[in-house]
Specification:
CATH architecture of the largest domain: Roll
Number of helices: 5
Shape: globular
Order of helices and strands: EEEEEEEHHHEHEHEEEEEEE
Number of domains: 2
CATH topology of the largest domain: C8orf32 fold
Distance between the termini: 17 Å
Strand content: 35-45%
Number of strands: 16
Structural class: alpha+beta
Length: 288
Amino acid sequence: MKLVIHHNTFFRYSQPLLYTVQTLHLWPVSSACQTVEFWDIRAPGTLHAQPDTEGNRVHSFSLVARSEQNLRENSISAMGTVLTHGVSEFTDAGLLPPPGFYLRSTPLAEPHPRMAMWALQTVPALMAARARGEMPTVADLVALASAVADKVQYRKGSTGVETTALEAFDWELGVCQDQAHVMVAVCRSIGLPARYVSGYFYAANEPDLASHAWADVCLDPATRRWISLDVTHRCPTDQRHIRLAAATDYTACLPVKGLRRGGGDETMAVDIRIGPWADTDDPGRTQG
């Protein structure tokens, strides 16, 4: 499926902004799952590519207000076309961190014994695979993702961006970010490398999920084989999904993250629109 994405972020300040530096995880990368045919980011400062060890394409920019400016607004826009391949199983490139890197505890996806006990009791096939000394099957992991979706019921506005996996697990409420974090934390709790994925999801009847999150779980550490699982929809990812960035948790791959001086109170609004590519659209140029 060929999709067109428009991702706009708007900032407003109650007082003049003096200085800001922002880091962007807003440029998807071509892979076995997708081909980025065209992508462009517009920002109020010059974009600089940043090093990244997890396979993401990262940029930063700084903005210094001139003395005569009364800078109270700032905006960043990203847009492009991506051809999705419907691939959920893939092998990592050798330059990426080894799967064991994604067993480590992180602030928003910390392993916990209660999560391990819950997973092994809720999906008995996981316990059976462990007893045989084997990795879980795809069917086992899909069952685990469905169990997480049952445990952490989707409810918009029930949590915040700083909610941890254990908090969402105990509250039994959350959004896609929380469901993905719980899946990652549960997998780490039972010894399975897992990472958080931010991206886009296209469904004409679910515009609230245009900005989406899911989890990668390692199927075989020796061969670095992974599967992407959409907990919210209880299934492996498919042609509706566009990967934007993957990391240990949300804090490591925020679409927009920054520091500022001045500005007073800040408000942020995000508008994301996704639709099928049409012949009337400008195909742009290939930038993978």
